[in-house]
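Fold this sequence, please.
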Amino acid sequence: MKLKQSERHIQELFRTRYGVTLEKIDEGGGSDGQTADFELIKSNKRVFVCELKEFERVEPSKKHNWTIIQHPDGSEETYGASNAPNRISRCIYEAYKQLGRYREPKVLIFLNHDAMDYRDLEETYRGYLIFEVGETRIKNTYAKRASEGIIKDVKTMIDLYIWVDSSNTRVGLQDDMVTFLFVSKIGRKIATDNFGIISETA
C-alpha cells in the first residue's frame, strides 16, 4: 500500500519514539476515501483508529490576506491576523467525518510544518487562550467563533489529539516536538498505556 510522505513520517516517529506501530487502513473499501488513516492493533483487537492532518508551510502573501510593506531600503515588513483557529477547526471537522464511522476510540494527529504550534490547537479547542503580561492575566477569546462553530458538537467526540511540530529536517525525527491533548478518560488511557504519557507535554 502506497503511503504519503507525511504518513511514513508519523509511522516512523511513533515506532522509534514510542514503540507504537500504526497500520495503514486500506481505503479500497471506503467511500470516497472516508476511512481513517491508521489503526493500532494489539492481540488481534483494534485499540484505536486515527486520522492524520498535515499543515504545510504557508508563505506570507497578499493571497493569504497578509499585509506586505516594501520599504525604500529594500526591506520588507509583513503582518496579518492569525487564521490558525479556522484552519485547525476545519481539519477537526473533516477528520471527525472520517473517524465518526468507527466505534473504537478516536485519535487525531496533526503534523505541522507551519508557523503554528500546540497552543493554537489548545486555543481552538477551548475557544480561548490565557497568557500573562507581567502580573496581568489576559484571556484572549479570538478563537471562540471557531471553537463554537462547526466543531462545537464533534470536537469532544475525538478522544485524543496529538500535535507534532516537525523539525522539517526529514532526517531528525528526534527533534520533532510531540504534545498530547487529552479530551476524554479514554484518550488519557490511550496516551498512558500506549505512549507512556502522563502529562500533556512530552
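The helical segments are 5-18, 84-99, 118-126, 144-147, 185-195. The first helix runs from residue 5 to 18.
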